[in-house]
Amino acid sequence: MCRSIKTLRPPAIPEEAAEEDMRAAALQYVRKVSGFRAPAAHNREAFDRAVEEITAATRTLLESLEVRGAPARK
């Protein structure tokens, strides 16, 4: 488990998660799974692509969740 990844949905955070929060969580996940803090040049493209794909998946997930008791999204 990536202990530094925080919950990004209300009510854990009072406002909607920012893009940079989602990207930071994705980066931590990719670092943990790959075992690389910073990949070698020959792995950079795959590493960066994984971060972008996981950021997009995180955004989709958060936009799809219905959180009971949370204020309605505008």
Describe the overall structure.
With 74 residues, this protein is an all-alpha fold. Helices cover 50% and strands 0% of the residues. It contains two helices and no strands. Helix 1 (19-34) crosses helix 2. The longest helix has 21 residues, at 44-64. The model has no long low-confidence stretch (mean pLDDT 88).
Average predicted confidence as pLDDT = 88
Number of strands: 0
SSE order: HH
| Uncertain stretches of 5 or more adjacent residues | none
Shape: elongated
For the record, give the distance between the C-alpha atoms at the N and C termini, rounded to a whole number: 32 Å
> How many H/I helices?
2
Structural class: mainly alpha
The amount of beta strand, in percent, is under 5%
Q: Portion of residues in helices? A: 40-55%
Biggest β-sheet description? none
The value of Rg in angstroms is 14 Å
